[in-house]
Specification:
Elements lengths: L1 H8 L1 H21 L12 E7 L5 H19 L3 E9 L2 E8 L5 H18 L5 E7 L8 E7 L4 H16 L5 E3 L8 E7 L1 H6 L4 H11 L2 E9 L2 E8 L5 H4 L3 E5 L2 E4 H4 E7 L6 E3 L2 E10 L5 H18 L4 E8 L1 H30 L2 H24 L6 H30 L8
Antiparallel strand pairs: 1-3, 1-4, 2-3, 5-14, 5-15, 6-14, 7-12, 8-9, 10-11, 13-14
Helix pairs in contact: 1-2, 2-12, 3-4, 5-10, 11-12, 11-13, 12-13
Length: 423
């Protein structure tokens, strides 16, 4: 082969190349991203719509159908689309043709979402657009528990303390805490009291909307100072909600508390998280972009002591799940296999051929081949993942066979009297 001829004519060139590979390997390993799966650019974009209180059939007719119509008219390159309508939610997945520029597709979907929102019935929340990725998997899960705080209070801490610190690093995302119930102020109407005062639920809604306002009225100048003037009718506390006036009958003002009961409660629980049988809250950490899985996990683990300093003393944080264990184990297995392969092959060559030079060649060539493979993977933008590590593990076996056969063949040719170049 031509490369063998070059190596025989210019051996120092290949020695220098081997040294450069070994010197470059630490830099590559520090900067090469690690992940569970390889980065797969799937041209799929999802629209998420929310309209609380509607049945799946109504969501499909009044939300999903409008969203799909705008997508078909405003977005190019669609291969097909899929939609699912739930109670209060609608999800529309748009699959684009292979090779589609996903950024351009996202912009088109965003514009279609804006156009569809204008045609939606009143009460629909603005649509959210999200790119689908096969690597959007939880890397690590943080479990919050406390003997004194409720799951609602733990959920508030997860959103106000944990989330800002964790997501301050680029490429790290945090899901909504599982097991937390949101705060909800409910107004329970008394139907008999409404009927007695000739009121309807619509009157209550209108009164609450009209009374809970802050209206700027202009400015006033006193001396050398100018002040802003506003009419502040905002409700400052829960008991003040009951003081909202509804109607005046025969000189008597009907207040909200006369026809309803105002209570500070929680939204209905849709998720439940338990730690050792006790209620708790779980946060899942995701990675966004090409950041390394190990980098994200190490960052979160280092941030836990800082979080504990900011949280109340009765709050405890535990690692519930760590995806990096599998990545570290896979890397360790490949290194272990490479070391065993190089050692056994070198021992076999030394045992059967009795040549220290051939033994050293085998011991160096296998790790050097793996190092050069990692450098090439880094240059073409690949990551260290289960696929690439599995391929390297298989390649080690093939490399051992080839190296053994080549060394034995060279030794045999030299034993027949040929010079090293001919052998």
């Amino acid at each position: 082969m031509w490369i063998v001829n070059i190596a025989l004519r210019r051996p120092y060139t290949f020695i220098v190349a081997a040294l450069l590979i070994l010197l470059s390997l630490p830099y590559v390993l520090r900067n090469m991203a690690t992940d569970i799966l390889p980065a797969i650019d799937i041209p799929v974009v999802a629209e998420i719509w929310e309209y609380r209180g509607l049945s799946p059939r109504e969501v499909g007719d009044r939300v999903t159908r409008i969203a799909e119509r705008e997508l078909s008219m405003a977005v190019d390159g669609i291969e097909h689309s899929e939609s699912v309508s739930f109670g209060g939610f609608s999800i529309v997945k748009v699959f684009f043709q292979p090779g589609t520029d996903i950024r351009s597709a996202m912009n088109q979907v965003l514009m279609s979402t804006t156009a569809a929102y204008r045609s939606m019935p009143q009460g629909v929340q603005p649509g959210r657009v999200r790119q689908y990725s096969a690597t959007d998997l939880p890397l690590i899960q943080l479990g919050l528990s406390s003997d004194t705080l409720s799951d609602t209070e733990l959920g508030d801490l997860a959103g106000t303390v944990i989330r800002p610190l964790i997501t301050s690093k680029k490429g790290v995302s945090l899901t909504y805490p599982y097991g937390a119930k949101g705060r909800q102020v409910s107004v329970d109407l008394d139907s008999q009291a409404l009927l007695a005062n000739n009121l309807t639920p619509a009157d209550i809604v209108a009164a609450m909307g009209n009374q809970n306002l802050i209206l700027p009225t202009g400015t006033i100048k006193l001396g050398g100072s100018e002040y802003e003037v506003s009419l502040n009718g905002a409700i400052a506390s829960i008991p003040r909600i009951g003081e909202i006036p509804l109607r005046t009958i025969n000189g008597r003002t009907i207040l909200l508390r006369d026809v309803a009961n105002v209570r500070d409660g929680f939204t209905p629980a849709t998720t439940i998280a338990r730690q050792n049988g006790e209620r708790g809250v779980i946060n899942s950490v995701l990675k966004v972009g090409g950041i390394s899985t190990l980098e994200v996990v190490d960052y979160v683990k280092d941030a836990i002591p800082k979080l504990l300093d900011k949280l109340p003393k009765e709050v405890d944080i535990k690692l519930m799940f760590d995806q990096s264990i599998f990545v570290r184990a896979a890397i360790g297995n490949v290194l272990h296999e490479a070391l065993i392969a190089a050692s056994l092959t070198a021992a076999m060559i030394l045992l059967f051929l009795g040549n220290w030079r051939s033994t050293c060649i085998i011991a160096v060539s296998i790790p050097l081949s793996i190092a050069s493979s990692l450098i090439v993977l880094y240059l073409i933008g690949e990551t260290i993942n289960l696929m690439t590590l599995g391929g390297l593990a298989l390649a080690v076996g093939i490399l051992v066979d080839d190296a053994t056969v080549e060394i034995e063949n060279i030794e045999r040719q030299m034993a027949l009297g040929k010079n090293p170049h001919q052998a």
